[in-house]
């Protein structure tokens, strides 16, 4: 650039400067968080593995072969076999689909409900706000695990009767896990709304004719999203753990559906002589949750609301 | 200038705005009448807390209700009263008929959208233009307010603009739907002095080009002298004096106005005389329990017993010159 004369004199500074929006800026900051980037790669690899892995490793997940019971990892069975001689790699890859799907779907439910409750409370104020926050506190104070067990016990049969066993259990589990995790999001969103709705740019938009819906959708919500995304990432991890817990307690999917929690449940009686059986699903859960949490950390740094708002 | 008496564009009549607080009812605006004629620039002056911003916000019904309440009076916009209008009807007046620019340009733009998108949004919503046409209008508006490289800058985010440039963007946004009246609420207060002058020039130029009326709210008499055609002086929720700008500066009648004018720094006097800048002693009285009689009495150098006994009415002392003082 130093050598150019006329061109650089007439060109405005804007032509050379890259255009940075808040989201590009957040991405730039996220990339600086090395652990988060590595975790992102790990998570992506895990997702790819469970998505296309079962196609490549075409071993059946439910073929019983008593001659191959409780085998240690080998070339034929890279992660060994369980007590029915079923291939663990295939079962973990397949189970990962369900565990991750439950994790993301439950997160989506939690975020949806949380954003809805939080934004209505934050926007309406008054009695509505008080009632919704009372509801939130109520949910927060409920003993979750016993209630989860009770709800699943009560509704599993009705729902499976309606939409079939696997879909029914999936919907039920996603609904109960999501239904017990929206409260933090609701509080977060409400707090964001309370501060954002007093911002001058919201007032300015209102002064120039923006309707209430538009104010919420275009001006308040996008600015409140940063912390919600962070909460969402952590919710995915929590939902995967919750699903594992339910499956481990035998209340998740039916026994022939190998989710990661279910695999652990099945493995627990054989820990002494087949530790690999419990170890691999455990590692899968551990890696997933750990990488999601690190991604959450990276997102927290990248989407720090103070930096975005004051920018 | 005579347009104001014959056919006012905006006619605020005996407006009363009350706010319910824990301590009681605050009468923030207490019987204010202001007319703005077509193409006229009216300045509303007064110190902080005298009700000028509340008056302006009430015109567009932007005050929070509750706790605020329009307790009386009319806001006639081209003869039609805005006070009973529902929020939907009010929305269609904002930006299209009456637009407003606020004091704080640094925070008045949404950080997550480009300035072009934000202007285009107002246009799309108020004039039902398509995405492309709205963006073209946005760029045209940025060009109009002298943003260099408007085409490119439209795609920049607010944090990439300086304070003065952001205020230009705000003005472009406010003018994007061709309002007949622009209310500017202390548009230069947050800016440094050279930028202030530029923004005032810009407002004057825009007014000239687009033929709109301007209601400028300020506490700076210097600004008033520069841009106003007519001046309304407010004190403690009331109008205390109103006059054409020359008349007001040449012949200020109300002691408060006189005090305001004396408190303008004068470079010519400072150089030749031992001239001390005068201040008006005291502060604006609480509007929770405003004093009986003239509200300025406690701070007035000419105060008499009569001042404390009854409130002096606004009376015409010369053609187009009204004031509320018994002297």
In short:
The complex is a heterodimer of chains A (311) and B (327). By secondary structure, chain A is mainly α.
Topology, element by element:
The complex is a heterodimer of chains A (311) and B (327).
Chain A lengths: L5 H5 L2 H4 L5 H11 L1 H23 L31 H37 L1 H16 L2 H20 L1 H15 L2 H15 L3 H8 L4 H37 L11 H8 L7 H28 L2 H6 L1
Helix pairs in contact in A: 3-13, 4-5, 4-13, 5-6, 5-8, 5-9, 5-11, 6-9, 7-8, 9-11, 10-11, 11-12, 11-13, 12-13
Chain B lengths: L2 H4 L1 E14 L2 E14 L3 E5 L6 H8 L8 E10 L2 E2 L5 H7 L4 E4 L13 H13 L3 H14 L5 H4 L9 H13 L5 E5 L7 H18 L2 E6 L2 H7 L2 E6 L2 E7 H6 L4 H8 L4 H6 L32 H5 L5 E4 L2 E3 L4
Parallel strand pairs in B: 3-8, 3-9, 6-7, 7-8
Antiparallel strand pairs in B: 1-2, 1-4, 4-5, 9-10, 10-12, 11-12
Helix pairs in contact in B: 4-5, 4-7, 5-7, 7-8
Structural features, described:
By secondary structure, chain A is mainly alpha-helical. Chain A has helices at residues 6-10, 13-16, 22-32, 34-56, 88-124, 126-141, 144-163, 165-179, 182-196, 200-207, 212-248, 260-267, 275-302, 305-310. In chain A, α3 (22-32) crosses α13 and α5 packs antiparallel against α6 (126-141). Chain B is of the alpha/beta class. Chain B has a single domain (3-97, 179-323), classed as P-loop containing nucleotide triphosphate hydrolases (Rossmann fold, 3-Layer(aba) Sandwich), CATH 3.40.50. In chain B, 35% of the residues lie in helices and 24% in strands. Chain B has helices spanning 3-6, 52-59, 87-93, 115-127, 131-144, 150-153, 163-175, 193-210, 221-227, 245-250, 255-262, 267-272, 305-309; strands at residues 8-21, 24-37, 41-45, 68-77, 80-81, 98-101, 181-185, 213-218, 230-235, 238-244, 315-318, 321-323. Chain B has an eight-stranded mixed β-sheet, sandwiched between helices. In chain B, α5 packs across α7. Mean pLDDT of chain B is 86; it is low at 1-5. The chains are: A mainly alpha (311), B alpha/beta (327). The A-B interface holds A 12, 14-15, 19-23, 199-201, 203-211, 214, 218-219, 222-223, 308-309, 311 and B 60, 62, 91-96, 99-100, 102, 104, 107-114, 121-122, 125-126, 148-149, 152-153, 155-160, 170, 173-174.
